[in-house]
Amino acid sequence: MGNKVALVTGITGQDGAYLARLLLDKGYVVHGVKRRSSSFNTGRIDDIYTDPFAKDQKLHLHYGDLTDATNLIRLVQQTEPDEIYNLGAQSHVQVSFETPEYTANSDAMGALRILEAIRILGMEQKTRFYQASTSELYGKVQEIPQTEKTPFYPRSPYAAAKLYAYWITVNYRESYDMHASNGILFNHESPLRGETFVTRKITRAVAAIKLKLQDCLYLGNLDAQRDWGHARDYVEGMWRIVQHETPDDFVLGTGEMHTVREFVEKAFGHVGITIEWRGKGVDETGICAESGRTLVRINERYFRPAEVELLLSDPTKAREKLGWTHTTSFEVLVQEMVAADLKVVAMEGDRNDRFE
Ligand code: NDP
Ligand code: GDR
């Protein structure tokens, strides 16, 4: 038997970069879809894409976009994948309030376009499909902790678009006997996390403040609670979902949650700064206990029109059926991200204010 072939949308993102490494390590030929961009957007995978012309190159990149059905059909036809991982998305919840239609087009219709490509090409029995579903589907709290059976209540255009993608995946599985599965993944982070998600925004700022390149970190809702794991663990979970004999939907998470405030305290703690909180609501500030300087302030622009206050997973099904569990603790995750950003920020110098 030859190498298995995987097609990955969103390969230039955080999860795409970790998943591509995992699949290459397992001997796959990996085809990744990258968007045309006016500047380089392959920074996260450059180290595994060193020589595109090498004879034994197992990673291939193709231009494409989830909003372009013709492109997706052609890519599926050309690459004949055994497995498709649909990780591509406009993935920022707050940005989705500003670009709701585009978010629906890429995140909801994108999933449909790939499923249709598989069907149009008659590949329902050959190609397995993974949809990057999200704990954002749970939105407004209906039940804690959240399982595969917890009702959904999306709270953003992003979550509403992902709700469609979730159900169309279930529907194609039931209608056309396809191996199509959803991973309902809780927040997962890493040094490769996008700079405008809260964890990376915090660890970058902590590094820049420590290196005296930034004065203050501006945040929104400090009380939000999230179930944060490491992306490396979660791409292993995605792969296991696709290998599972029967297609199904699985929650992946740590079963532990923390507030944004705790994340801030932990991150500063790793560079030897103790944060003391003063005031309430928009007037709350984080003060450096050692120097008395104000290092954290609240800015209303980071509050969302509708907030998801807390997310907490119950990943029992994944543990029992897939043998999957997270291996990186919250403590180690924060430490790894701060350590990585100390290096990144030192190299980039005083340009950190771009990442608000
Ligand atoms: P990122 O934002 O880091 O990556 C998103 C990827 O999608 C990038 O490669 C991006 O390209 C690509 N993309 C965006 N729009 C399009 C489009 N129209 N056509 C093709 N590709 C596009 O996200 P993550 O890696 O963190 O997440 C991966 C997936 O998992 C996403 O679908 C996300 O919604 C979902 N998810 C993420 C969770 C998390 O905590 N990280 C939790 C649950 C679900 P470019 O690099 O050019 O911007
Ligand atoms: P989330 O991640 O919305 O959970 O979506 P994000 O890190 O953006 O926000 C987490 C929580 O932190 C609060 N917050 C802030 N968020 C940002 N980005 N910037 C701030 O300054 C800030 N201050 C407080 C937010 O209000 C929120 O409550 C992520 C994405 O990866 C999705 O694609 C994915 O589906 C979900 O995780 C699971």
TrEMBL record:
Any GO BP annotation: 'de novo' GDP-L-fucose biosynthetic process
InterPro entries: GDP_Man_deHydtase (IPR006368), NAD(P)-bd_dom (IPR016040), NAD(P)-bd_dom_sf (IPR036291)
Stretches assigned to the NAD(P)-binding domain: 7-337
Pfam families, alphabetized: GDP_Man_Dehyd (PF16363)
One of the record's GO molecular function terms: NADP+ binding
UniProt KW keywords: Lyase, NADP, Nodulation
EC number(s) given by UniProt: 4.2.1.47
Required co-factors: NADP(+)
PANTHER family with a match to the protein in the record: GDP-MANNOSE 4,6 DEHYDRATASE, GDP-MANNOSE 4,6-DEHYDRATASE
Physiological role: Catalyzes the conversion of GDP-D-mannose to GDP-4-dehydro-6-deoxy-D-mannose.
Homology family: Belongs to the NAD(P)-dependent epimerase/dehydratase family. GDP-mannose 4,6-dehydratase subfamily.
Protein name according to UniProt: GDP-mannose 4,6-dehydratase
Organism of provenance: Maricaulis salignorans
Biological classification of the source: Bacteria, Pseudomonadati, Pseudomonadota, Alphaproteobacteria, Maricaulales
